[in-house]
Amino acid sequence: MSLSKNILFLPGDGIGPEVMTQVRRVMAWFNASGATAFEIEDGLVGGSAYDAHGTPLHDDTMKLALDADAVLLGAVGGPKWDNLDFSVKPERGLLRLRKEMELFANLRPALVFEALAEASSLKTDLVAGLDIMIVRELTGGVYFGQPRGIETLPNGERRGINTQVYDTHEIIRVARVAFDLARARDSRVCSVEKGNVMESGLLWREEVTKLGESDYADVALSHMYADNCAMQLVRRPKQFDVILTDNLFGDLLSDCAAMLTGSLGMLPSASLGAKDANGKIPAMYEPVHGSAPDIAGQDKANPLATILSFSMMLRYSFDLGAEADLLDGAVNDVLNEGFRTGDIMQPGKTLVGTTGMGDAVLAALDRRAG
Ligand code: IPM
Ligand code: MG
């Protein structure tokens, strides 16, 4: 890579900073190898930003995120900030980043690592080899729809309001991402909504169907109601290739799919926007797991989801597929060698801490590059 790239690190709260420390080491490894020339800038998000600035995302940090070539985020939130006003909760920082960077497509792979298949709460044969990609719409729907709020009615009762709303272009742009991804996989998209109850879901189904017919006739498109999809995910998860769904259903279904893999601490994600005139795609990468305040600062957290998020960054932001494959391979190696953090520990395996897992990944990278 000839041009240097500017990566914004937003470690956030809880275990965020310590898992990000391991990515710094991995990133330094790739820089030293000559494959990349990444420069890291650091910022605050979530509760740590609130403590420093009284807001979960300072305007200056928002600007850094918009200017960066890619953003890597750790995790936000924790009991310390649970009772803050809704408008300054740690999660608002994350939602602002998604909205203002216009990261409408959230890619959440649910992948079962062979060495961990037994850790799933489902029977091993149901999940062994599982490889689902959930594409969740991320900047629309009920998360952002207006009107919203809490109001007091004339009779003194209170009313909480949120609005599920989708415009055609919001559906089409995220559906394109799903169809394009499917082409590089098993060429199957299952589009998920509740068009039996919600007009927004009916529109979703109609628009996705039209787009499939006009532009993606080579991709097999099916439709499913969201409740059925939740059921099918735990019944026969391997029937899915790419699942395309809205913001709220995607939030629920991706947690469900994550648990199928038996290892929330392993799952990365990418949130992408539309390519601009200079060819840059706004992008933020983050592990699916949360801030795990109960184990924060104890060198117990699993850094692999964040390391794999960095791998997604290599692949989707910088077109470095070979480097991403190398890193994914190194993660597979350390699992096959038996290294485990507490969250994925199994009898007879080697328990390591956050730093120890980072050491193992670096050693595996050395060997593979060797
Ligand atoms: C997620 C999380 C967020 C969401 C929260 C932290 C706002 O659950 O990324 O899935 O609901 O989108
Ligand atoms: Mg969620």
TrEMBL record:
Residues involved in Mg(2+) binding: 227, 251, 255
Domain of life of the organism encoding this protein: Bacteria
Statement: the UniProt record of this protein carries the keyword Flavoprotein: no
Keyword tRNA-binding: no
Binding sites annotated in the UniProt record for substrate: 98, 108, 136, 227
Site feature location: Important for catalysis: 143, 194
InterPro entries: IsoCit/isopropylmalate_DH_CS (IPR019818), IsoPropMal-DH-like_dom (IPR024084), Isopropylmalate_DH (IPR004429)
Co-factor requirement: Mn(2+); Mg(2+)
GO molecular function, one term: 3-isopropylmalate dehydrogenase activity
PROSITE patterns linked to this entry: IDH_IMDH
Entry EC number(s): 1.1.1.85
Main location: cytoplasm
Keyword terms: Amino-acid biosynthesis, Branched-chain amino acid biosynthesis, Cytoplasm, Leucine biosynthesis, Magnesium, Manganese, Metal-binding, NAD, Oxidoreductase
Residue numbers binding NAD(+): 78-91, 290-302
Cofactor note text: Binds 1 Mg(2+) or Mn(2+) ion per subunit.
Catalytic class of the enzyme: oxidoreductase
Pathway of action: Amino-acid biosynthesis; L-leucine biosynthesis; L-leucine from 3-methyl-2-oxobutanoate: step 3/4
GO biological processes: L-leucine biosynthetic process
NCBIfam families per UniProt: leuB
Protein family per UniProt: Belongs to the isocitrate and isopropylmalate dehydrogenases family. LeuB type 1 subfamily.
Function: Catalyzes the oxidation of 3-carboxy-2-hydroxy-4-methylpentanoate (3-isopropylmalate) to 3-carboxy-4-methyl-2-oxopentanoate. The product decarboxylates to 4-methyl-2 oxopentanoate.
Protein name in UniProt: 3-isopropylmalate dehydrogenase
